Amino acid sequence: MMRPAEDVEVYLCRDPVDMRKSINGLSILVEQTLGLAPFRPHLFAFCNRKKDKIKILYWERTGFVLWYKRLEKHRFVWPVDVGECVVTLTGRELNWLLDGIDVFSLQPHRELSFETVL
Questions:
Q1: Taking Cα atoms as reference points, which of 104, 89, 85 lies closest to residue 35?
Q2: What's the per-residue H, E or C state across the chain?
Q3: Residue 4: its pLDDT value, please?
Q4: What is the pLDDT of residues 39-63, one digit of tens each?
Q5: Do residues 29 and 4 lie in contact, with contact meaning Cβ atoms separated by under 8 Å?
Q6: Per-residue pLDDT of the chain (118 residues; tens, 9 = 90+)
Q7: Which stretches within the chain are classed as H helix?
Q8: Calpha distance 12→29 (Å, rounded)
């Protein structure tokens, strides 16, 4: 099974992408639309309009790698209205997203603040 490392930085393209795009089209999208460098050690994730397909692009030493997943029944939970064209996740959060978990509605514990330990 191929899954990203938990500490890798992942950039999600929020807008739907034509899944006919391959390495060249997606790498141009990373540069021109997302304003990011496709040769950096990051993952770039793209989803189609129906949210049943994901492509992940990354550079690995001597060339690009393109990873593709198609769901047969369910849909990926993809950010809709976050105000940004690109959303940043960790590799761990991307794995959760690939498993069907809504990483955007997870609520952490409320931050605590104390003055003293006594």
A1: 85
A2: CCCCCCCCEEEEECCCCCCCCCHHHHHHHHHHCCCCCCCCCCEEEEECCCCCEEEEEEEECCEEEEEEEECCCCCCCCCCCCCCCEEEEEHHHHHHHHCCCCCCCCCCCCCCCCCCCC
A3: 79
A4: 999 999 999 999 999 999 999 999 9
A5: no
A6: 678 777 889 999 988 999 999 999 999 999 998 999 999 999 999 999 999 999 999 999 999 999 999 988 888 888 876 667 788 898 989 998 888 888 877 766 677 788 888 7
A7: 23-32, 91-98
A8: 12
Among the listed residues 85, 96, 80, the one whose alpha carbon sits nearest the alpha carbon of residue 44: 85
Given CA atoms 28, 33, 37, 40 in this order, what sign does their dihedral have?
negative
Kindly tell me the burial class for residue 77, based on how many C-beta atoms sit within 10 Å of its own C-beta (0-12, 13-18, 19 or more). middle
Altogether, the residues listed in the chain come to a count of: 118
Euclidean distance between CA atoms 71 and 79, whole angstroms: 17
What residue has token string 């690109």? 86
Model's pTM, two decimal places?
0.83
